[in-house]
Batch of 2 targets.
Target 1
Amino acid sequence: MASRQREISVSEFFLKNRHLLGFDTPAKALVTAVKEAVDNALDACEEAGILPEISVEVSDRSGKSRVIVEDNGPGIVEGQIARIFGKLLYGSKFHKLSQSRGQQGMGISAAGMYGQLTVGKPLHIISRVNGEKLASEMHVSIDTARNQPDIHRKKQLKWDRPHGTRVEMEMEGHYQKGPHSVEVYLKQTAIANPHLSITYKDPQGQELHFVRSTKKLPPRPAEIKPHPYGIELGRLIQMLNNTKSRTLLGFLVDEFSCVGRKTALKIIEIAGTHSDRKLSDRSHPRHIAHVQAAALHKAIQKTRIMAPRTDCIVPIGEKQLLDGLHKELEADFFTVTTRPAAAYRGNPFQVEVAIAYGRPGGAGVEVDATGHLRKKQAEEPPAAENLIAQKDEPVRLLRFANRVPLLYQQASCAITKAVTQTNWRGYGLHQPKGSLPVAPMAILVHVASVWVPYTSESKEAIEPYPEILKEIKLGLQECARRLAHHLRHQTQLHQEYDRRTYIEKYLPHIGAALQDILALSNAERDSTVRKLDDVLHISRTTQRAEP
Ligand SMILES: Nc1ncnc2c1ncn2[C@@H]1O[C@H](COP(=O)(O)OP(=O)(O)O)[C@@H](O)[C@H]1O
Ligand SMILES: [Mg+2]
């Protein structure tokens, strides 16, 4: 046995467990690869204060796909390119706590590794940093046994972009249409990022343009320190070992948010009651034993600590989100709400909910430009890519985390749970028990956080923490109330329309009868009144008979 024991590199592990990173089927792998590259492009542009302009190109030939994503971001310095694309768990976002799309440092390198495994091609990267005369071009793959980059070719070249990055990858892939397509991912990205412009060329060579509706970049999210409530024991021990502080008091105050001197002293005092070993504010963090750290960890949970600051969260914003929805979706009714920020396990987060109801293609009653009521005819049903459900289908859920659309694992996501646990019948919708409501509608939910609790590394679903579920439900209820109000108004319009139609239908008969009455002799008048009576009688009974 002993001779068989061997170290396992992270890359070998994820190579065998590629489903954990979202590369389990060729169709999904293709969307995941596009997503990783686009997410990075957006993060990089926003961090550098550049309005993102991205182009995506996908080609697909007999099971082999090629993806090219090009951005106008800040570019990557040559010395970093190989490690970013040829090493798992390498990135700029993992160690800081701030709202970004990527967090693990395992996105684009994983896509590269999948390509390498399935078609044996390294990643092809061109990147230019502003001010550099030439761009760097590199072909990189991962040495999976060592989790280190392998550079195949490298050169400097002229590139017409002043700055930006172009990533080209080849992989086993399958291009598909429908709710899990590249188009739907990009369209949803355009909704949640109204400052983004994308050009997309699909495998048939058709170009699709998503044009920005605002030139305003979202404010840059602030970086924060961890809140003590969210810290696990292992991480606490690691922090104690790595800190520059020389005293426990200094450590607590410097390394955590919301901990001042008073709170720190309180934590240390409570920790003293949990451990026989002496623990003082002047203890050296690196000399704290495991039992003492455990006592400290317990004490933190027992101490009242201020809730975390929430200004580190940047929601899309009600106006922007509404702009994004209007520009990408056609619906009769839109409503959006941004909840106040909250926290789960010390991590600040914020929820936004929107509803788009009714397909303009559907039948209904509307008020026209002259103020008259008009009945609309149903048009032919739109394509499957339409993000609003048909009227007898379950509603479409558009889930987002830090502005990134989540396309897979819908069933296990906190957002789905919150929607199915909401009582939509109370708002006038049809809802089979424990399911999504059935209506011509899309429900959009965005969860923004400094640390989104994904259920897996592939970042497809959000863990249903009670605090997160609660916030989503409150947002849903707010939007549902406004929707119910709209639907009541629609019903009133329908009734009003029907009433007016009846009056208009019988008014000519009544008019004619009145004319007759005035022009006739007494006897004739009596018979006409009887006739009129009949007309009104018919009108009354037909009104009752018609629904
Ligand atoms: N298009 C890009 N422009 C600039 N920097 C990038 C780009 N793509 C990736 N990076 C850098 O490479 C790092 C690793 O990317 P990735 O493997 O996707 O992990 P993550 O996004 O989770 O950090 C990022 O943190 C970022 O610093
Ligand atoms: Mg990434």
Target 2
Amino acid sequence: MPPIRLHVDHDLCEAHALCTEIAPEVFDLGDDDLAHCDESPPEALWPKVKSAASACPRQAISITET
Ligand code: SF4
């Protein structure tokens, strides 16, 4: 599987924090009230990352294969 690159669009994120609940190993809320993420999460966490992206009500999380 090719590596993935993860990105949170801060113009869309509204700090609903579903991503941090689903995949706390990868996402956290910063002092700026925006989600920040590990841009290259390990493969073992990809299922959680994909669940978080699907759950984001703002569709702020993008996953691209590199
Ligand atoms: S679920 Fe989406 S809107 Fe909510 S904090 Fe995560 S990226 Fe931002």
